[in-house]
Amino acid sequence: MAHYPPYTSKYNPIEYRLFCHVTSACKGAVFTSLDVVKSLIDKTSTSKGLKVFSTIKNKVYATGRKVSENFKQNMKIVFDDYLGKWNYRAIPPSENLKLYSEYS
């Protein structure tokens, strides 16, 4: 998981390079459905050849799920060398891999 600190999304290199092009591609369009938005975003590209791909997730996610009391003890968290406070990997215990894969 990689997170940018609060108020620093302007430094996200992907967002920074693409947002203006996505905005231009959607200029003047009426968003009547998700398909219209997706098609406009998918047609976006830059003069340097960078192309945008989008996916619509229709999955309904469960709300109010609780984690076990010993979640932090059982979940291995590996912090990256670069911005370790914000970038990390959560590695579930091997016996719970099936459980975690059901929710991804």
Automatic annotation (TrEMBL):
InterPro entries: Transposase_36. This is Rhodopirellula transposase.
